Amino acid sequence: MKTKLFGPTTIAALATLGLGSLPAMAQSPIKIGFVSTFSGPQAAIGEDMRRSVELAKEHLGSKMGGKPFEIIYEDDTFKPDVGKARSEKLVLQDKVDFIGGYIWSNVLLASLKTVTDEGNTILVSANAGPSQIAGELCNKNFFSTSWQNDQTPMAMGEYLNTKGVKSLYLVGPNYAAGKDMLAGVKRTYKGTIVNEDFTKWPDQIDFSAELAKIAAAKPDGIFIFYPGAHGVQFVKQWAQAGLNKTVPLYQVFSIDAITLPQQGDLALGTLGAQEWVNDLPNEQNKRYVADFKKKHNVYPSYYGAQSYDAIMLMASAADALKGDLSDKNKVRAELKKANFKSLRGDFKYNTNQFPIQNFYIQEAVKDAGGMMTVKTIATAVKDAKDPYYEKCPMK
Amino acid sequence: MDYLLIQMLNGVQLGLLMFLLAAGLTLTFGIMDLVNLAHGSLYMMGAYLAWTLIGVTDSFFLGALLALPATFLLGVAVEAVVMRRLYARDHLDQVLATFGLILFFNELVRAVWGPAGKSIAVPAFLAHTVEILPGVLYPAYRFAIIVVGALVALLLAWLVARTRLGMLIRAGASNRRMIAALGVNIELLFSLVFGLGAVFAGLAGLMAAPISSVKIGMGDDILILAFVIIVIGGIGSIKGAFVAAMVVGQIDIVGRAFLPDFLKTFMSSAAASSAAPAISQVLVYVLMAGVLVWRPTGLFGQRN
């Protein structure tokens, strides 16, 4: 006699199994959506973030608050409209508990309302920090494990004052973050701003016209903000134009673990500001960097470190609430404590839910193995708050 | 003055790259009456093939040199497999089919080279600056682009004006049916012309690679500008493509180098920086519209 695969008994058995697993249904995994760029010229950044998220998952033993969790990655393809659509899908279709990620300020701004307001879902930005969200658009469902855009360049500006750099030429891309970054350095830098140029974003990668203007203006330094592939291009062209011998380059987010393999020796000795550096001497950071390097044979970047922190922040709330994320008020209250071991060292949340944190000056160097990396050379500012939090109605 | 000179050279360099792309486009459009939207894909393939061959040979020069026959063969193959079926169809069918080719090539590149994009380093022997005038420094690589672009333009001028192939090309541009009736092997001619266009596009792509980056869809943005150039210059005219590319190159550089500083005198720098490229882009189209009103077949186009 043949056994029917889907005979009545099997169905009955399946049904009881299903019923029997009802309590386990409450144990359904915590879902985390992660939006980043996984294709196109900036895919290397998304890959670095994904690797760090996976490492965080491994360090957590794939559990938060006693429950298993799964991560659903979505590719924003570096476009605001696509990012918004993917975020919408995560909220409406996957019904995720948290959304993390977001490299680009314009993608985050396009997606914010869909997630935080229409979807009432908590969003943890692992990179982008547009001024709008720190100020008037601040949102109870928005948390940052990175910084507000102005802050890193503000730290750089402070350092340039102490270093005695007398005049500066500013160049950056013409979009939300570019404007914040250039505004940021102008907030603190006391020397002369020779000129500022905004270039077309993201399609302009030829900086010959700007570099010719810089050569003619002869400033004491150039300040740039060109993340990822654009940073590679700017540094290369700066060197090709011979300006690396005459005008030093100061940067934020343009020379990092992602771009250094391609920038190579050209970047050697350049200075930048950052809230996290791979050599910060705390235990969790040592473990993260060592495990990351062992797995991938490259250094992690701040994009990765901030993504790792984003997952750890979510885990801290899930742990405190024993995996029950149904009451959003409780989840938000737990997140606000920032009760986790951040890779940058402990930090507190400001009223607008951006971190109050230190910023460091880093130099591009070669490590013992000859690999390009960055190392901390100074602390630029301590316990810095962003300049917009007073505009945020949340107290 | 030095500054002006450098910016003009930047414009010439951009113009020559655009010319290389437009030359192939104007030939296929003018002689074969083929609207080839996939010309930008050949530009991209040139860059990707060069990236691979430079990796294999470990030499920029050798890799770039080998990439040229490779793009030629690719061009001939595309012509034989796809384009040949399109000559008799109307322009709309050609647009549809060649748009399909764009999608095909973009996916092909994604499958073969991955989504992340590649970068080609400037060759060591050109990674410095040259003193073009006392005290005026210019990146050697960009200077090399100008030299190569100018040489290719001269070569093309010689080819079109002085050789038998050039004679056939010119004849084909003015009256296709007549040269077919005179017993010229039109299939072979079309195949050669398309392959030649592919080589120029590939050369432009691989030369642009070190100063931009090798990525999926890199030819799509620049293709629109190339079409504008051939319309301004006159479809089928190499001379027209050259003149128009030079003019467009200068307009672009004015928009990026001088216009922002002028606009900053009365608006915020962020606003000026967004307005300037938009204005220079509009200027290119205004130029095209003006040329079309004045000479509907373009500056050097065949008047019927």
Task: Summarize model confidence as the mean pLDDT of chain B.
Answer: 90
Strands of the largest sheet of chain B, in order across it? 1-2
Question: Could you describe the largest sheet of chain A, including whether it forms a barrel?
Answer: 8 strands, mixed
- Total helices of chain B: the number is 11
Looking at CATH, which topology of the largest domain in chain A would you report? Rossmann fold
Most residues in contact: chain pair = A-B, 36 and 39 residues
| Outline type of chain B | globular
Which band does the percent of strand residues of chain A land in?
A: 15-25%
Q: What pattern of helices and strands is seen along the backbone of chain A?
A: HHEHEEHEHEHEHEHEHEHEHEHHHEEE
Report helical residue fraction of chain A. Answer: 40-55%
Q: How many structural domains in the coordinates of chain B?
A: 1
Number of domains of chain A: 2
Q: What's the pLDDT, averaged over the residues of chain A? A: 91
Structural class of the helix and strand makeup of chain B? Answer: mainly alpha
Beta-strand proportion of chain B? under 5%
Low-confidence stretches of chain B: none
The first-to-last residue Cα distance of chain A is 73 Å
Number of helices of chain A: 14
Tell how many strands the DSSP assignment of chain B holds.
2
